[in-house]
Amino acid sequence: MSLDISRILDDWPYEPGKVTARRIHGDDGRDKIQLRLDLGLYQMEASGRPDGERPHGCETLLAYYEQRLLAFRQRAGSDEGFELDEGACEQLRAESAMFYHRYLAEFILEDYEAVERDTRRNIRLMDFCSRYAKEDSDRFTLEQYRPYVLMMCARARALLAFQKNRPKAALAAIREGIEGIKDFFRRFGPEQAATESSELAILRAMAKEIEGRIPEDPITKLRRELAKAVKEERYEDAASLRDQLRTVHRPDAGAENRQP
Predict the structure, then answer these.
(1) What residue ranges do the domains of the chain occupy?
(2) DSSP state of 57
(3) Which of 96, 201, 88 is nearest to 146 (CA)?
(4) What one-character DSSP code corresponds to residue 19?
(5) What DSSP state is assigned to residue 189?
(6) 110-117: long-range contacts, CB 8 A cutoff, minimum separation 24
(7) Sign of torsion, CA 240 243 247 252?
(8) Is the model's pTM score more than 0.90?
């Protein structure tokens, strides 16, 4: 059997400047995700660890170290003294890169539930290394990527909410992502760097688009129209709008029309 993959690559041309992905059904009966690159392609498992490995019998290397932490706590009564050495951190970073490639492909394939799953998993890995890495360099190496992962997670959550026709939930997800990124800049500074953040710019633009799709609250609309009528000295219109607001706010509004 030939090991040359040229035919596969020729059938799926690389497009410069464009990230291309597809989902296939593997020979083993499981779904795979493929990501086309300039010099070849990545093939990843659709669930579990992207390379299909089970480190130390666990689903992922992060899960393995989380189990070790749990066992340490049971023995010591706390997590004080639990540390990740340089080698462990390096392996965890390599695992996070695998998940990055997969959630990038999942986003292209509009599988937003999977994107949320994998981005949340990488955020958990960042938190784990940040707390337990022995060396300062290992605690902070992954932090530079946190704004991007938070952005991708927020976008996935928002788009998933849109698929379920829940624009307010979508807006809440975007706003939570914005606050998470702003908190990152507050912690790691300089805070003014937030004004130059491409991640924040993308989420703010998305928030503005979502806000335009959410129907305006009737009371807010009446108050806005009332303020405009007063400013333009349209007093009859203003009086009518005040009456409408009183009707909306009155607890027994419309009681005379209700049946006993």
Answers:
(1) 47-211, 218-250
(2) G
(3) 96
(4) -
(5) S
(6) 110/159, 112/156, 112/157, 112/159, 112/160, 112/163, 113/156, 113/160, 114/46, 115/152, 115/153, 115/155, 115/156, 116/153, 116/156, 116/157, 116/160
(7) negative
(8) no
Q: Which of 209, 246, 234 is nearest to 225 (CA)?
A: 234
Q: Which of 227, 222, 215 is nearest to 246 (CA)?
A: 222
Give the pLDDT confidence score for residue 46 in this predicted structure.
96
Q: How many residues does the structure list for the chain?
A: 260
Helix and strand numbers, DSSP H then E, in the chain: 10, 3
CA 241, CA 218: separation in Å to the nearest integer? 12
Write out pLDDT tens, residues 186-220: 888 776 777 889 999 999 999 999 988 777 667 77
Q: Is residue 45 helix, strand or coil?
A: strand
In the chain, what is the greatest distance between 2 CA atoms, to the nearest angstrom?
Answer: 86
Fold of the 47-211 domain: 1.25.40
